């Protein structure tokens, strides 16, 4: 009678511990966000390889933590399910059973799995995109805006405005030919409308002599997008 109630009570405390363990996911996720953001900031300010590699190591450590957490939770859930099914008469050595299951899972782990984890792959992509963007900016005639210097803010506010909508850009794209930036939807609609009338599209930036714009010349301006986002965060503070 009372024996039947025992496991139920102990499992409910296990369930509670499990849900607080699951909360750890959000801490790991936040840590990954920060590491990514630091890596991109480092690249933007011109720090190369070693510092960015350090962030890559941090990302792998977080990925490893996440895997351990997932496997531990998985082990607990498996064991609890099994014990509930068996309706064990005595209170089992829960910790020992979980440890056994967890160790079995850990033995199958391969280091490369971490490098294939979703967040790590995303991190590598973002770093790669940022490097490409910086290279493009260095090759292009326009330098990119360094928003971390206060002096750049007033100067950059002008650059944040789309020459078509006169609003702060949400999705800036850069024209590879003349180097001007616009909000993606606005410029694409403009070019399409001109082309539908069988006319050439002229760059809307005052003073620009580019008279034959193509949608294929537009590339996402990731650096500027980030600059706008950082500027927005700063002004909200
Ligand atoms: Zn232009």
Structure, described:
It is a single chain. The protein has 237 residues and is mainly α. It has 2 domains: 2-133; 145-236, 2-Layer Sandwich (Herpes Virus-1). It contains 8 helices and 3 strands; from the N terminus they run H-H-H-H-H-H-E-E-H-E-H. It has helices at 2-44, 49-86, 94-107, 111-115, 118-139, 150-159, 184-196, 222-236, and strands at 172-175, 181-183, 218-220. The chain has a 3-stranded antiparallel sheet with strand order 2-1-3. Strand 1 and strand 2 (181-183) form a beta hairpin. Helix 1 (2-44) packs parallel to helix 5 (118-139) and helix 2 (49-86) crosses helix 3. The longest helix is centred in the N-terminal third of the chain and has 43 residues, at 2-44. Residues 1-8 and 141-154 have low confidence and may be disordered. Bound molecules: zinc ion.
Quickly give the structural class. mainly alpha
Q: Proportion of β residues?
A: under 5%
Any ligands, ions or cofactors bound here, and which? Answer: zinc ion
**Helix coverage percent:** 55-70%
Per DSSP, the total helix count is 8
Largest sheet: 3 strands, antiparallel
Poorly predicted regions are 1-8, 141-154
Summarize model confidence as the mean pLDDT: 83
Q: Note the overall shape.
A: elongated
How far apart lie the N and C ends? 60 Å
Total of domains? 2
Strand order, largest beta sheet: 2-1-3
Rg from Cα: 27 Å
* Number of distinct beta strands: 3
Give me the strand/helix succession.
HHHHHHEEHEH
């Amino acid at each position: 009678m009372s024996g039947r109630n025992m496991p139920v009570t102990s499992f409910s405390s296990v369930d509670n511990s499990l849900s607080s363990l699951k909360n750890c996911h959000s801490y790991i996720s936040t840590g990954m966000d920060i590491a990514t953001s630091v890596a991109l900031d480092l690249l933007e300010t011109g720090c190369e390889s070693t510092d960015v590699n350090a962030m890559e190591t941090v990302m792998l450590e977080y990925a490893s933590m996440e895997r351990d957490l997932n496997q531990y939770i998985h082990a607990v859930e498996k064991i609890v399910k099994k014990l509930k099914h068996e309706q064990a008469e005595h209170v089992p050595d829960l910790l020992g059973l979980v440890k056994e299951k967890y160790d079995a899972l850990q033995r199958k782990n391969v280091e490369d799995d971490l490098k294939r984890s979703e967040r790590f792959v995303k991190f590598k992509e973002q770093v790669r995109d940022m490097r490409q963007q910086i290279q493009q900016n260095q090759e292009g005639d326009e330098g990119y805006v360094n928003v971390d210097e206060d002096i750049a803010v007033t100067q950059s506010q002008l650059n944040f405005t789309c020459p078509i909508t006169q609003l702060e850009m949400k999705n800036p794209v850069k024209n590879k030919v003349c180097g001007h930036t616009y909000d993606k939807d606005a410029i694409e609609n403009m070019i399409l409308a001109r082309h539908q009338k069988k006319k050439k599209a002229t760059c809307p930036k005052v003073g620009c002599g580019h008279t034959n714009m193509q949608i294929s010349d537009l590339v996402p301006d990731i650096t500027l997008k980030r600059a706008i986002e950082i500027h927005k965060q700063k002004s909200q503070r």
